[in-house]
């Protein structure tokens, strides 16, 4: 039988059946001789199934005794068998022939075992299984004295399996199996609520651990008030939920969830507060009003910005036209109106006194520079009507004045307005 042979092949199964039948016949036909001296025996009586928490340590017991006829070298083997190969091997003491056939029967199974530690030639070898290297050692410093037990340290979930202790000292052979289950303690569960917690609704509390070996069980209890769960509460220990129908303020309080398995427990706490359902219509109305107020504020800010910009532009126009009037008043002749120095002929633009324009309070602000020029002409015509100026003269004066004002000067900004020569500058006539 080769190592690469499929253990599920019909031929191999047929061979196993023949060996088993021969083994059973030998057990029946070779009775135990009364008073016979037995050979090597496993004397451990401890449990054959152990459950431990991850991170801990465990001792796998394997005590043995030798007989005087066991004179061969002592060999101790510890192996880890797959979890699906947990059949209990019965060691018969009916004779060495039966023991030999029993070893042949189990030799095929040992091909898939993982040796984790050996003792041979008065020396221990613990580097056969890398996953347990540094975490397994013999319990006794001298196993040949009858203690083949081993200790496993810092247990992990992957250490779960069936461990077999085999002691051989020719012609005696003995073995023992121990099923070790390494379980992970539940991690700290997370408590939460599902859905709303308003009065009249169905409130659901959830509890879940992210880690832990199954089966996990969840237990809910109340640690505030009367410490009793509501009468309408329905719990599910497997899923970790508790449902309470038609919730009221009376079920408000502090709840605790405990997650546990066979090797450990952990818990979480949840504060439940059942409140009145808020007024949805009021919330919507308030939101709409808030949005409208925000839009109104934005519109007001934009209006103020536009108004300030328009006012700045208007002030620039007035400043420019005042500068133009000052320049004209300093270079044009000023008639003496008090002495009757009225022009007898149609006056031209230089004969008009600009100071009259400064004291007009009934003239509205000009819309443009052209309208300002027309305002100047209108003011001059009204002032001349007090003297000997006729309407015909006023008409000719206004027309001549508009014809003499080049439009390019009104379109120039204040920085480009033409200035008179310095030699002709003079202050305005205050009379």
TrEMBL record:
UniProt superkingdom: Eukaryota
Single biological process term from Gene Ontology: homotypic cell-cell adhesion
One annotated GO molecular function: cell adhesion molecule binding
Transmembrane segments: 281-306
Compartment(s) of residence: Basolateral cell membrane; Cell junction, Adherens junction; Cell junction, Tight junction
Gene3D superfamilies: Immunoglobulins, transmembrane domain of human cd4
Tagged with keyword Nucleus: no
Domain Ig-like: from-to ranges: 31-181, 186-275
Signal peptide boundaries: none
Gene Ontology CC, one term: basolateral plasma membrane
Membrane-topology descriptor: Single-pass type I membrane protein
Biased composition (Polar residues): 369-395
Pfam families attached to this UniProt entry: Ig_3, V-set
Basic and acidic residues compositional bias, start-end: 396-407
InterPro entries xrefs: EJ_Adhesion_Regulator, Ig-like_dom, Ig-like_dom_sf, Ig-like_fold, Ig_sub, Ig_sub2, Ig_V-set
Keyword annotations: Cell adhesion, Cell junction, Cell membrane, Disulfide bond, Glycoprotein, Immunoglobulin domain, Membrane, Receptor, Repeat, Signal, Tight junction, Transmembrane, Transmembrane helix
Region of interest (Disordered), residue spans: 369-431
Protein name, entry field: Ig-like domain-containing protein
Species for this entry: Electrophorus voltai
Upper lineage: Eukaryota, Metazoa, Chordata, Craniata, Vertebrata
